[in-house]
């Protein structure tokens, strides 16, 4: 059927979508969300159909940007539109809904079609839900990892040993990577670290690092930095290491499920050529992994998946019941990390975590006394020098000082209304407050935590200071804090957590961060 | 945040959607598919966010038709857009993903939010997938049925006994309802029958009936017809009996799953006030329900759900290995049904099925010898007269004759290439061919089946005749038939069904028809 294009001027998030008039759709026997083959200018794409009854008139077809660009269409061009058969990947997904294990070839075809924009959000959401409900077995996780590597870019660094670290996330204020990379690189190991930006948290590692240096590097620039300094800290988004993952996460996020956790992480490590890796699993009530037993089971899965992908994995199960260090939010965190590197501040938990993880990597690559070596590299200033080298190589100012880093000047300090001990800290509420204050977009927004679990407080003592760049957002964060239980203060024998008087709405959720 | 509207001129299928510029979205801390509250002209809606980087400039917001109409917006109006909290229904869906049973109140809130357009396609797809994977228990099925009734229209007919029938579908050519309704109504029972149009089949009952009379009746007109004639045959789409179901089906169809089968059917029966009902469960390889054992289990669930909803249900497990009668496609089927009512043709399987089902309804309402009575009503011409009464009451021509019904004049007859018996008929391929010929949109398109299972054929005997309204579609149907195995012809001891030489792509699917 020949139709005239109407350019809609809208993007579909990478998917190929066209809008048909209801009558034309009936004539083609296609329903909404079925597929058509659109042919124009000697080229063709498979597009998903939306249907409009009023604004796309009979004889025309509404064209989203992706289709426009792929076929080089202009307003009023003639295109040939015909019904297209269902891609096989849809049948594979339907098989998964009926509990069938998927083969490598089937998974590979699903991943290819996800990237090509051939699958609708409904199909991807259903696939991801089925993976969540049934659980991924390790064969499928391996296939998914391999298929995701195959469909993305590969970093080639000519070194026999390449190390990497990853945290499955969930703890606010976790700036460990900003210490581990310079320590490990200063020790002579190669660590091509890519990180994500925040998705539901107040800061991702890429957001933190960006306060100190550019992170939007192309793959070639990343390679140059690593070859020069042994390390880097870049944003994964521009590298296209496992592009399918970015599409899955758009669906996983609103559902607050993360069934692709293992292949998502491991595919990116494989893509940068890592052969030794340490995985940080923060554990505690406020994180993704609630108990040490669960953490050990997850560790086992990662280690086995690593073995199948030729990556030796060790895991660090870490304490995650409260933020790491004292700061949450990109600039506050970058400043704290830099201050630890320069020796200006001591954040004992942050230093302990970073040197433990760096130490594991050092020992995995054959060095002795890993943690002590890491501590010595940090204390001696070698880590700071390496950090400045990396900053310079990535295009930042190598002489940056902590006081050069601006933080939000709209502040409010919350003080304790009573005396007692800090019994618990609600990670999710703190992260939410930092987001309301403007993080991660407003780099200077965030929270400074004056007290941590176990600390004694008197009435009137400062508990936390909110930083925002704009008064309006400061107010929003304060309103948010008022509604939430952020810190528990009481005597050590206080037993009641909260009362349930009517049917509760359980709003359990978790931070997705990769 | 105050933004100027840009009217997009696109519909979102009932959902409230707005498109934000990426920077504005970051400032509001909303991601794609999260929700905002849009306030304008003293009114507000909760809308789902899409994000555009180019075509919605900073400071403007793209407005879909649903939001435009709900708030009465014009191009360039100022609206206030703020982040909105997640609806509780999203948390209930997340709980379901983690295998929690949902309470009535939780289900009710999900259904309400589905209808109000507050849930994204991803959330609905995930919910429907979880229901498919975990299965609905009867408590949840009851809650869903009640919530769907509560959110839709109700038919009020002042009669102590109201009967209804339903087929779970899957057999092509099933025009049974066109006989059952007039038989039962002629016997003095009240049967306010609403039916669906085809979704993935070649004709739904509403499509068939529409050949004989208007079916797009409003609820009040339906009531008037039933009060006048004891029966009606209308399309459910205009009645709004369980509007949530129409939204679910848009998601279920591309996934080829139907977890809401029970509440979908039973809520509509409850909404028309039925208290006696017979459910037809066609059984066989080409239908939804493959074996008699499965059919019995499904029957049990329907009967128990009926009990909880105060509807007495009996089931008829019927033979579904081939089409009912000889015709597929709206006009061909309407003509066959009318010809059976007038006595012009005998279609023994169709008559047997219709009189059995009508007979069950007669016996359920206290009459003796149901099947014989039904047969007598059909044979005596009473059913035909009742049919013409209903046709007249619904606004059709009561004197319509079979020869007045036009069928597609582009025809091609497929003849047997060999001698033998018809061993099997592939329902799905036949329906697909009828669709390719233009059914259900082209009412005259379809297939006439000359032979049925068990019939002896000689080389050159006509097997089936395709009817189309346009030559192009006839050709398309023929191309489709060539690729498919439609009829199996052979000797009765032929054992091989097909060979599997390489990894097959299992394209199992089923007809969704309600």
Question: What secondary-structure arrangement, pairings included, does this model have?
Answer:
The structure is a homodimer of 514-residue chains.
Chain A: E1 2-7, E2 17-21, H1 22-27, E3 35-40, E4 43-52, E5 60-63, H2 65-71, E6 78-83, H3 88-97, H4 104-115, H5 121-134, H6 138-150, E7 163-167, H7 177-186, E8 191-195, H8 205-210, H9 219-229, E9 231-235, H10 243-255, H11 261-271, E10 276-283, H12 292-308, E11 312-319, E12 327-328, H13 330-342, H14 348-364, H15 370-379, H16 382-393, E13 410-415, E14 420-425, H17 427-436, E15 446-449, E16 456-457, E17 462-468, H18 471-483, E18 487-490
Parallel strand pairs in A: 1-5, 2-4, 7-10, 8-9, 10-11
Antiparallel strand pairs in A: 1-6, 2-5, 3-4, 3-6, 12-15, 13-17, 14-16, 14-18, 15-17
Helix pairs in contact in A: 3-4, 3-5, 4-6, 4-10, 6-11, 7-14, 7-16, 9-16, 14-15, 17-18
Unreliable spans of chain A? none
**Arithmetic mean pLDDT of chain A:** 93
Q: Helicity range of the residues of chain A?
A: 25-40%
Question: Beta-sheet strand percentage of chain A?
Answer: 15-25%
Strand order of the largest sheet of chain A: 1-5-2-4-3-6
E-strand count of chain A: 18
Shape of chain A: globular
Q: How many strands, what sense, and barrel or not for the largest sheet of chain A?
A: 6 strands, mixed, barrel
* Contiguous helical run count of chain A: 18
Calculate the terminal CA-CA distance of chain A, rounded to whole Å.
45 Å
- CATH architecture descriptor text of the largest domain in chain A: 3-Layer(aba) Sandwich
What do we call the CATH topology of the largest domain in chain A? Pyrimidine Nucleoside Phosphorylase, Chain A, domain 2
Number of domains of chain A: 4
CATH superfamily of the largest domain in chain A: Nucleoside phosphorylase/phosphoribosyltransferase catalytic domain
Structural class of chain A: alpha/beta
Please name the two chains that share the biggest interface, counting residues whose Cβ lies under 8 Å from a Cβ on the partner chain: A-B, 63 and 63 residues
Q: What is the oligomeric state here? A: homodimer
CATH class of the largest domain in chain A: Alpha Beta
């Amino acid at each position: 059927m020949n139709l005239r294009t109407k350019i809609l001027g809208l993007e579909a998030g990478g998917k190929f979508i066209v809008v048909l008039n209801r009558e034309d759709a009936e004539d083609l026997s296609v329903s909404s969300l079925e597929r058509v083959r659109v042919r124009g200018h000697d080229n063709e794409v498979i597009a998903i159909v939306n249907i409009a009854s009023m604004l796309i008139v009979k004889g025309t077809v509404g064209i989203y940007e992706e289709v426009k660009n792929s076929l080089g269409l202009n307003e009023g061009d003639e295109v040939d539109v015909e019904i297209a058969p269902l891609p096989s990947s849809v049948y594979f997904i339907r098989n998964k809904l009926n509990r069938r294990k998927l083969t490598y070839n089937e998974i590979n075809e699903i991943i290819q079609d996800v990237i090509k924009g051939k699958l609708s959000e409904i199909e991807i959401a259903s696939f991801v839900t089925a993976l969540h409900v049934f659980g991924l077995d390790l064969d499928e996780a391996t296939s998914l990892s391999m298929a995701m590597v195959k469909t993305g870019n590969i970093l080639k660094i000519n070194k026999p040993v390449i190390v990497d670290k990853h945290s499955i996330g969930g703890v606010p204020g976790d700036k460990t990577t900003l210490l581990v990379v310079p320590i490990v690189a200063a020790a002579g190991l190669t660590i091509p670290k890519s990180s994500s930006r925040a998705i539901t948290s107040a800061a991702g590692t890429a957001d933190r690092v960006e306060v100190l240096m550019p992170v939007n590097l192309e793959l070639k620039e990343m390679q140059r930095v690593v070859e020069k300094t042994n390390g880097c800290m870049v944003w994964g988004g521009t590298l296209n290491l496992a592009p399918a993952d970015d599409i899955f996460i758009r669906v996983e996020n609103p559902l607050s499920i993360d069934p692709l956790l293992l292949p998502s992480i491991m595919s990116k490590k494989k893509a940068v050529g890592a052969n030794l890796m340490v995985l940080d699993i923060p554990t505690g009530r406020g994180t993704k992994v609630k108990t040490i037993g669960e953490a050990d089971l997850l560790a086992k899965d990662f280690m086995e998946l690593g073995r199948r992908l030729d990556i030796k994995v060790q895991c660090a199960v870490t304490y995650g019941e409260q933020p790491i260090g004292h700061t949450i939010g990109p600039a506050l965190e970058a400043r704290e990390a830099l201050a630890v590197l320069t020796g200006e501040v001591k954040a004992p938990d942050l230093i302990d975590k970073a040197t433990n993880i760096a130490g594991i990597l050092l020992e995995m690559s054959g060095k002795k006394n890993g943690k002590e070596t890491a501590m010595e590299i940090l204390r001696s200033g070698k880590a700071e020098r390496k950090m400045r080298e990396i900053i310079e190589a990535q295009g930042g100012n190598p002489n940056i000082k902590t006081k050069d880093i601006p933080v939000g000047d709209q502040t409010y300090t919350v003080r304790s209304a009573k005396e007692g001990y800090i019994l618990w800290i609600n990670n999710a509420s703190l992260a939410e407050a930092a987001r309301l204050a403007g993080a991660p977009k407003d780099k200077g927004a965030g929270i400074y935590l004056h007290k941590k679990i176990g600390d004694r407080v008197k009435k009137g003592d400062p508990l936390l200071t909110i930083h925002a760049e704009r008064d309006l957002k400061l107010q929003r964060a304060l309103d948010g804090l008022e509604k939430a239980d952020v810190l528990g203060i009481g005597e050590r024998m206080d037993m009641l957590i909260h009362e349930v008087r009517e049917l509760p709405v359980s709003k359990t959720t978790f931070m997705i961060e990769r």
